Amino acid sequence: MNPRAEHDLLLGEWACLGILYAAPTHGFAIAARLKPDGDVGRVWSLSRALTYRSLAQLFERGYALEVGEEPGIAGGNRTILAATRTGRAQVRKWLNAPVSHLRDLRSELLLKIIIADICAIDIRPMLLLQRDHIERMATALTESANGAVSDDVVVLWRAEASSAALRFLDRLLDAAVD
Asked: Could you tell me the fold of the domain covering 11-119?
């Protein structure tokens, strides 16, 4: 098993770090936001156990640190965590990198958009790069789909998905200008 690179976080870890970037908080509050009906969880959800595991990974990598405690509702104290300077820099770097694969738009790109909004980080430059990247893919996929002798459903799907992604990004970019 290959250890992950220092900057190579899982999407759940990025979600936790993004929440910590916005404001210091405790694990229970982060877990609530990552439930399927939470503001972040509707894009990328984690169980409470996986949330705490992700927070432990962030702490181990030096991306999060303990900054205080507050009383818990059912007794005991809750540890308040915050993103470190390095953790905050990693979030900004991650948010400014376009998603490479069309298949990751639904998960990673949407998560980036939600986290950027929570953190009040302008990602329009990344969205423009993302649009250019998808446009290049869409052109190649459309040419493939139009030339597909066997009506390859995978090629057709990718061509349609890339066209939909372009429309989505155009709407986001148009709304950002208004």
From this structure: Arc Repressor Mutant, subunit A (1.10.10)
